[in-house]
Amino acid sequence: MNPKELEQHLKQSLEHTVPDDFERILSHCDAQKGTVISMTQNTSKKKKWISIATAACLALVIIGGGSGYYYKINHTVASVVSLDVNPSVELTVNRKEKVISATPMNEDGTVILEGLNLEGTQVTVAMNAIIGSLLQHGYVDELANSILITVEDDDAQRGEKLQTELTEQADAVLANAQINAAILSQTFQHNDALTQKAAEYGISAGKAALIQAIVEESNGTKTFESLVGLTINELNLLYTAQSASYAFLESSTGETAPAATAIVSTGSASQNAYIGAEAAQDVALDHASLSASKVSFLKTEYDYDDGRMVYEVSFHYNGKEYDYEIDARTGEVVKYETESAGTVPASSNTSAAAAEYIGESKAKQTALNHAGVSESDTSYCNVWLEYDDGRAECYEVEFMSGSTRYEYEIALRSATVLKYESKTYSNANSSHANQQTSSTSNDIGSEQAKAVALKDAGLQESSVTGLRVERDYDDGRLKYDVEFWSGKTEYDYTIDGTSGTIRDKDVEPHGSASSNTSSSASSATSSNITLEEAKAIALSHAGVNAANVFDMKAEQDYDDGKLEYEVEFKSGGMEYEYKLDSSGNIISYESDWD
Amino acid sequence: MLMLILTQATDEKSEENRKELNQLLQKVAAGDKEAFGQLYYRTRVAIYGLALSYVKSAHTAQDITHDAFVRIWEAAPQYRAQGTPMGWMLAITRNLSLMRLRTQQRHTDLEEDQWDAIPAEAQAVTAEDRALLQDALSALEEGERRIVLLHAVAGLKHREIGSLLEIPLATVLSKYHRALKKLRIQLEGGGPQ
Questions:
Q1: Which domains does chain A have, with CATH numbers?
Q2: Cβ atoms within 10 Å, residue A106
Q3: ipTM beyond 0.90?
Q4: Which of A34, A150, A286, A584 has its CA 20 to 30 A from that of A160?
Q5: What is the pLDDT of residue B119?
Q6: Nearest Cβ partner of B58 from A17, A24, A25?
C-alpha cells in the first residue's frame, strides 16, 4: 500500500464511523443564534445545583420583578460584563446597569447559569448570584481562588465605575464566604480582533484580553493558543509572576495597578494546589547539590510550559547560571539547564551543562569496567552522546569482546550505568534469531549509521547537504536510511542497524537516468533540480540579490510523496517563503513584512 | 502587525476548496442552514478525526464534533477570511477537545488513555476499518496519529499542520513518515513488502 492509498483507506474507514448528527446539531443551533449557547449538559452536576438555584432565584425574582419601562433604553447594550473563573459567563448590561442577557461561554458556565433568571436584574445583584453559584459548585475555593471581572464599554468612565462596583461586590460576597479571593479586573473598549479571537476559542473577550496581556509580556515565549485552556487562577499566577511590580501587591486590597496596564489585581492567587515556591527551590537546589546559602540571585516564579504549571527556579553559582523547571504539582524536575562557557555539540534548543558531562572516555571506561573487559580486548568500541528530541540524554557505549556484544547507557553527569545489555553469539544464524526478538537492543544508532555512509562516500558531514537519517524496520530488521547530497549527486544508503554494514547504496548523479531506489518515500525523478538551484529560482523570482539576503533556509520536503523544495529568506524588511516542485516550478510563494 | 500576503497557489484544488469553504462560511454567518448542512457534510470527518486524536474515544469525539459545529454556527459571523477556513474550524475543534480533556482530568483521574476508535453503534464498520482504525492506529503515538489524521483526512498540508499544532515543520514531517511506516508494518504484519 503506498502512502496515498493508505491515507485514502484511513479516510474511508473514518467516514464509516462518523455519525450523521446534523439534525441534532441543527436543533441546537436554532435556539441559540445570538443568545444562549446550548451545550451538552453535565448530568452529574445538575442535582447539586438545585438547592442553590432555588435560593438564588428567589432573591432574583423579587428584584427582577419590575419590568422595563423605556424599552429602548432597557434593551440597548451599554456594557458587556464577563466573569471568568473556569466557568465563563457574559452579561450584557444596559445603561441603567440592568442585565439584558446572560450567556454561558463554556460548559461550566452553563452549569453556573442554569436555573438563574438574571434578565432585568441589577448587574451587581446578578454578580452576587453568579458568585454564589460559583461557590456552591466548588469552582472557587482555597485551591483556585481567582476571578476575572471584565467590563467592556465604549464609555471608559462608565466602564471603570462599573468595574469598581462589581469588584467590590464580588469581594464582599467572597469575604463573607471566608474565601481569600484574588480578583483581577479590567475595563476596555470593544475590539473586533479580540472578539473574534474569543469567539474562535469559545472564551469570553475578558479572558482573551487577559491571555493577550500575558502573551504580550512574555517576550514571545508564550502563545495565545497554549494558554487558552488554563483556568483564571493559573493565568493569574502567570500574570502576577510576569509583572514583577505586581508581586508586591500581594494581599493588598483595592490597589490600583500602574497605568501601563488596565488589569487591576487584588488578593493573591492561590498556590495551594502546588508544592509552593520554597519547596520548588529546595528540589532544584537539592538536584544541583547546592544549598541556598551558597547561591546568589535565587529566584522562583510561575510559568506554564509543555502543558503544565511549573516553578521556574534560577540561581547563580560559581559563575554559572542554573535554570530549573519544577512541576508545580508533583515537585518533579521537568527540565534543567546550566549556562556557562562550555558548549554543547549542536543541539537545537537547549544548551545543557556540557561542561558537567563526564566525557566520552570516562563513559567508555565506566562501561568497560562494568563489563570487566579491557579496551584492548574489544574488536570494536564506540561511544557517543545520545540525543532525544534535540537534548542530550546519555552516553551510549557499544563494544564487542570475543563473541559477546555489549551495549551500555551511561549517565551524563556521573559514571553510573543506567542500562546494559550483553549478547553472546554462537553462530550467524542464532544471531539473526536473537535480533528478531529484541531488535532495538543492538542498535548502532543514527550517528554511527551516518558515519558509515559518509565514510563510504568519502565525504565529510560538513561538505554534504540535505543530510537525513531515518531509523526504520525492514522485514523485521533494523536499518538506517541515510540520504545526502554532495554537489549534484544524491547518495542514498541503507545501513544495517545492527552490524553497521551497508546493505544498499544508490548514488545518483544529477541528470542521469539511473534510478533503482528501494526507498519508499522517494519518488525523485532524474530531472530534479538541486537545492542550490531552488534557492536561485526563488531569489530571482523575488528580485532579490543573494548578497542582501539573510536567514536563508532551504530544505527538501515531501508532500504526498512528491519532492518539494521550501526556501525561506529575509531581505529588505520582508520575509519570503517559496515552495518549488522538483523541476523548479514555483508552487506557491508568500511575502510578508518581517 | 502589518501584513501583506501575496499568495499564488497553483495548487488549484486546495485553493478552490478553500474558496468554497469560505463562501459556505459566509452563508452560514448569514444564517443559511442549507449552507451549514453542506459545510457539515464536507468537513465532519476531519473535525471528528481531529477530536478523536485528542480524546481517544469515539463516543466523546462524536460529542465534540457536535459541539464544534454548534460553535461554528454560532461564531461564523465573527470569522474573518484571514487564514484557511478549515484551519479555523479545526482550531475550534482542538480547543473544545482540550477543554474536554481538562474537565475529564478534574473529574476523573482513572482515565486510562485507551485508544477506542470504534463507536458502539456504528453499523457500516467493516473488519478492514477496524483493523486500520483500531488496531493499526493504536500502534501510533498520539502526536503521530494526529498528524496522520490531519493530513489524510482533513487534507491539511504539513506546514498547515505545523502551524495548527504549533510544532516545527521538520517534526511534522518526521512524525508523519514514521507514522506511515508504522501503519504499513502493522497492516502488512511486518512481512516483506
A1: 42-266 (no CATH), 277-340 (3.10.450.40), 357-438 (3.10.450.40), 446-509 (3.10.450.40), 531-593 (3.10.450.40)
A2: 24
A3: no
A4: A34
A5: 77
A6: A17
